[in-house]
Each structure stands twice: as structure tokens, then as C-alpha cells.
Amino acid sequence: MTDKLIRRIVILGGGSSGWMTAAALAKSIQRDCDITLIESEEIGTIAVGEATIPPIKQFNQMLGLDENEFLRQTKGSFKLGIRFANWGKLGHEYFHPFGSYGRPFDLVQIQHFWQRAQSQGQAQSLDEYCMAWAAAKAGRFDRPSADPRHVLSTYDYAYHFDAGLYARCLREYAEARRVTRIEGKVATVQQNATSGFVESLTLESGQVIAGDLFIDCSGIRALLIEGTLKTGYDNWNHWLPCDRALAVQSETGEFAPYTLSTAHTAGWQWRIPLQHRTGNGHVYSSAFMQEDDATQILMKNLPGKALTEPRLIQYTTGRRKQCWNKNVIAIGLSSGFLEPLESTSLHLVQAGISKLLAYFPDRDFDPLVIKEFNRVAAAEVERIRDFIILHYHLTTRDDSPMWQHCAHMAIPDTLQYKVDHFKRFGRLIPGEMDLFGNASWLAVHIGQMNWPERTDPLLDYRTLNGTEYIEQLRAAMALAALGLPTHRGYIDRHCKAT
User: Fold this and answer.
1) What does pLDDT average to over the chain?
2) Residue 2 has pLDDT above 70, yes or no
3) Going along 40-92, which residue ranges are E strands?
4) Contact in structure between 48 and 279 (CB atoms under 8 Å)
5) Cα separation, 203 vs 189, whole angstroms
6) What whole-number distance in Å separates Cα of residue 482 and Cα of residue 302?
């Protein structure tokens, strides 16, 4: 029988995406395949993916990384969710939690009981019924309880960390498991004259690197998937107008266990606290704001002294028409770009790696496999796109041209359907490949004033005193939060960087 196995994998590009891919392949492919990663220290990486969402824990666990040691090496901290300021309207805040609002206690979902109590003046803001926020606002953290009966089991967490240190950690992991790193820049790409498949890369040094499967982790440049194969790109700037980001590091301010996202006149600013510094950035639309103004806003709102000069990143929001084309698979920014509003940058790398392993090819590169990979990849990123658009579209702000544009723009039909259902009855409609669950959608709908016109009709038939129950729930969460260690105290005890 003819050997059809992939024997040579070439990863073009390092950074988080390249080394995450290399580490996962090294863990999964344990023999009979050479894995080579090409990167250039001169080119560098964007390296602003410092906030994550809970699935990153599964990736690290798959590799067998010890959580405390990983956080020590990356100078990381914990993240219970995202605090949004000035998004729905100026002066208003809400929290997007990791976890749920309480625990299911009735056939009718908890938000309907809360909405009825709120309309009667008998409930506080929705945030107060979430364990993640109870801990976050108190500056507390501990790992969730394994006892499902306890309110401390109802939240989840992710991380903040130095993306450059994470890449270094994964490089050490991958090189210890037979991954070969080559320093250099690609000069030319050789393709098969008949099939168009990539056969080898020639570096500026003259070295030729041949492969069967090529993983494009070259970032926004997309040297293989676009530069060579001309795959094409779907531009989403008509829905997501921001196309610039300024990034700067500062001294550590408030060491909060959450990411802060503050909306400004033509974009928003992130604040990500690490053990040794704070990551900051201003995402904005060049159609509505000049770079000098964006820089001034960013520097004015730092939590401490700036440690670096602001770095400009230009991008076009959207995705490749195919993430897998011929024998090239794009992972990370080479596959497309979504702004880091919901910390999905590294997750999309993780998702690309998961699909690569789930649909791993042989040298036939069956078109049916490629088609399914691309279908799933498109559905996955489009659902995340819809969730991010929701933040821009659900606003009552009319203080600047960008927010006026976002409030009145047409949105994708898939998203409009969800918005309409929630507006009518407060119902959350899951979609295929939704990364974010009901609690996430609920947080943004309510947090940005998409108030349901009425509660679920079934609520009128229930006899449970939900108002009393959710108040007991809120009090229990507030009390439980005070029993947790401080965020800084937990890190100093378990995973302080040295």
C-alpha cells in the first residue's frame, strides 16, 4: 500500500500562534513526522493577545502544563470576566462574567424572575446575581468549588499573561519534543506546477525547507494563504468600523481579576493587569478619529506611568474565504482578524489547532475534508463576529458620529434574529458553533439596554417566589466572595513570578 502519511510539517511564523501550533502538534504527533518552525527575530509579532477566555485552560491541560508554573513563567493573573464602561451609555457599566447567573432553580430561566423583580423595584442590577462579579468587584479570587451545591461552583475563570513569555514557554515545550526551529525570512515560495500545492520555502540564506503540509502562522501578512495562494478575504468593516489599535505597557495599577474595556468617542480602551505591568490599548476607527487624538486618549487614561511608546497596529476586520487552501492551513491572524474586545484572539488560534487535529489530512488532501474544515471555521468565526457586533449595535449613545453609525447600521440576519427574540420575550436563542453561551449574551443584552418587552409567558403560571430566592442568592454570593483570598494574595501564595 502506498504511504500517504504526512511526513513533513512546516509552520511559518512564531509568536503565540506558531508556538501554540507547534506545541500541540508535538504533543499529538509522537512519531514518524518532522515538524519545523520558521521564524525571524527581525519581524517580531503583534503580541497583544494577553487576555483569554476559559477554554485556554483546556489547551494548557492538553499539553500537560502545570497551571501555577505556567502563570509564574508568563507573569500572569486571573480573569473572572470583562468589565464594560460607557458602552450602552455614558457613565454606565456592566460585567460580562465567566460562569452563570446563580444556579438553575426553576423551569423558567433566572433572568425572567430578575426582570419581574426589577420592574417592581425589588432587585438590584443583574451583575449582583453573578458569583464572578461578586468576587471580581471585591478583588478576590480562588479556584471554583467542585461542589455543585455551592455558589462558589457557579463561576469560571481565564488568564491574563504576557503573550511573548507564553510563546517562549511553548517554544521550550515544543523544542523538547522534536520540533526544529529555523531562524530566517522567506525569500521565495515554490509551488507544484500542476496542482499549485506549496512544495518548499526558500529562505534569504538560500536554505530550502520542503514540506507536505504548511501551516501559515505569519500573522496579518499571511504570506502563504494570501501572498502565495491568493485565497481572498471577506471584509467586515461595514459592521465593525475599528481598524486601528495603539498598544502600550504601563506600571501596574489596580490589580483587578478582570479585563476593563472602556468605550471612547470612536472606539474603546483595554486594560489588562499582569503581575509586573499593565497592558493597555486603544482600538479605534480611522474613519472617525486621527491617530494623534487616539494616542492622546490612550496616554491620558493609563493606570500608571507608561513603560513603552505606543505601537500602532493596522488591520482589516474579516476572515479568509478559506482557512485551508490546497496544502496550506492558516491559523491565527493569517486566517483573519477580529478585534480583541472579547479576548478571542488566542482562542481562535486554539480553535484552528483543534480543527487541524480533528481533520488531520493525509497527502491526498481530500477536498471533502478541506470543505468541512472551512465550513466549521467560517461558522465559528462568524458567530464570534456577531457577538462583537452586538456590543457596538446595542447602544443608546449619540454623542459621537461613530456611535450614531453603529446604533443605526444594518447587522447580519443571524444576529438580528437573536436581538429580536430577546427584545420580544427575553429569550436567548443559541446558534450553531456559538462560542459564547447564554450568560454571555444575557450580560450584553441587559448591560447595553436591550430590555425585553415582557417576560417569558410561562412565568405567569409559576408559583415560586423568585424575588425572594434571587435575593437570597445575591446575599449568599456577596458573603461567599468575602471569604475568598484577595487576587494578589492568591497569586503571591501559589504562582508569584520570580
Assistant:
1) 95
2) no
3) 77-79, 81-85
4) yes
5) 9
6) 29
The whole model's pTM is what? Answer: 0.96
The closest of 160, 344, 137, 157 to 249, measured between CA atoms, is 160
Q: Return the residue matching grid coordinates 481533520.
A: 359
Going by the DSSP 8-state scheme, the letter that residue 409 receives in this structure is: S
In 10 A of CB 399, how many CB atoms?
A: 12
Here the cell at position 148 is 455543585
Residue found under cell 482589516: 316
Q: 3-state DSSP call for residue 112?
A: helix
Average pLDDT (438-454) is 96
Question: Residue 389 and residue 264: Cα distance in Å, rounded?
Answer: 16
User: Quick one: angle between helices 15-28 and 56-63, nearest 10?
Assistant: 50
CA pair distance 8, 460, nearest whole angstrom = 63
Q: Which residues pair with 262 in a beta bridge?
A: 85, 269
The whole-angstrom distance between residue 399's C-alpha and the CA centroid of its chain comes to 28
Q: Do residues 17 and 331 make contact, with C-beta atoms less than 8 angstroms apart? A: yes
The whole-angstrom distance between residue 140's C-alpha and the CA centroid of its chain comes to 23
- CA 356 – CA 214 distance, rounded (Å): 11
Give the pLDDT score at 1.
Answer: 46
Owner of C-alpha cell 468565526 = 381
Q: Are strands 179-183 and 158-160 parallel, antiparallel or unpaired?
A: unpaired
What confidence score (pLDDT) does residue 104 get? Answer: 83
- The three cell numbers locating residue 452: 425585553
> Residue 140 has what DSSP assignment?
B
Rounded distance, CA 310 to CA 250, Å?
A: 10
Residue-level pLDDT at 464:
85
Dist. CA 25–CA 19, nearest whole Å = 10
For 99-146, write each residue's pLDDT tens digit. 999 888 888 999 999 999 999 999 999 999 999 999 999 999 999 999
Q: How many CB atoms lie within 10 A of CB 278?
A: 25
pLDDT by residue (tens digit) across 413-442? 999 999 999 999 999 998 888 999 999 999
Q: How many angstroms separate the most distant Cα atoms in the chain?
A: 77
Active-site position among 4, 27, 57, 79:
79
Task: Report the interhelical angle of 367-393 vs 345-358 (nearest 10°).
Answer: 160
275 φ/ψ angles, rounded to the nearest 5 degrees: -65, -35
Dump strand ranges (E) for 220-310. 233-235, 244-250, 259-264, 267-273, 278-284
Residue 45: pLDDT band by 50, 70, 90 thresholds? low
Closest to 403 (Cα-Cα) out of 220, 254, 242, 251 = 242
| 79: annotated active-site residue | yes
Q: Classify the C-alpha dihedral 81-87-93-94 as positive or negative.
A: negative
